[in-house]
Amino acid sequence: MSKTMKLAAILMVKNESPRIRVTLDSVASVVDGLIVFDTGSEDSTIDIVKEFSRESKIPLHLKIGKFQNFAVSRNELLAFADAVPDYDYYLLMDSNDELVLSTTKDVLKNKIFEYDCLYVHQKWHVGTDRDVDYHNVRVIKSRRGFEYVGPVHEYVKIPPDARVGKLSYEDATLFQDRTKDDDGKTRNRWVTDVKILEKELSEHPREPRTQYYLAQTYACLEMIQKAKDAYEKRSLNENGFYEERFLSMMAVGDLEKDVYEKIKWYVKAYAFANRAEPLVKMCRIFRTREMKLYELGYAFAKIACDLEYPEKCTLHVDRKCYAHDRWQELSISAYYADEYEIGKRAC
């Protein structure tokens, strides 16, 4: 690794004063520079960024402009960053991201030098007992041809010859507490996203990514029937990212009220991708007072516990399911199936 390798955090912001300082403080000991594109803040966001730069002695490169859409504006930010010759890699951040390093502060620099981009673990806290885990491209090499695609729910398009790496959960996490939305900004964005995604889908009705994120946004806005219909359409679309299809099948099952319809969709999800999450959900149904199908739950729980963790999956793997829930279901169902030794081992 070159001793002169420099890493800059880059952010696109607008009216982020309640949350921006947490983000900046989390990278203060990690990055060598800060590149910010402010798209029209009317609060103290810019002042906070400048104050952080002065206090931390981290150089600030600030661009002021107008927001167009997420891909266009983020690409404008990348072009601005590439015009600054000082940095070799960028840490792509959103306001309210908090970088949590499980090892040393240099883990990013130590891992990145042999790659052009890194998938980084992201964790969203979205409820009292619920976290969403996934991996996303969050470190890229400067001036390497990376670009964003998509007017909303944008993603980094990776050049075909790029060297791609992945940080483990133990190395680093970009954490967001999604329950802290006191100003309603997130919900307002969802309302806007629905309009954009509906328009995109009217023009390209079979575009799988648009189908999936429209379903996600409906669900976030508690538009249940629209969300269920949209997830079902995505589950039937064989194009695009296969994990979106799996998660869409799971989501339809979650949103169904009829228990047999739930089971049907969880079976579809397991048949499509042999993962533990749908099996565990069926186990919980089978051991209800209404069902009392303990032996069936036991059989499904055993299968779930034999599965490997889906290391290659990047989109919303339920880590708690693999670390805890499947073993809990096996222990419960084993008791009712008179398989006490297996239940004890599961405990």
Summarize the structure in words.
- With 347 residues, the protein is an alpha/beta fold.
- 46% of the residues lie in helices and 19% in strands.
- It is built from 13 helices and 11 strands.
- The chain has helices at residues 20-27, 45-56, 70-82, 107-112, 185-203, 208-220, 224-236, 242-255, 259-272, 276-286, 294-306, 319-336, 340-346; strands at 7-13, 33-38, 60-64, 89-93, 98-101, 117-127, 130-141, 147-149, 155-157, 164-166, 172-177.
- Strands 1, 2, 3, 4, 5, 6, 7, 10 and 11 form a 9-stranded mixed beta sheet that branches.
- Strand 2 (33-38), helix 2 and strand 3 form a beta-alpha-beta unit.
- Helix 11 packs antiparallel against helix 12 (319-336) and helix 12 runs antiparallel to helix 13.
- The termini are far apart.
- The mean pLDDT is 91.
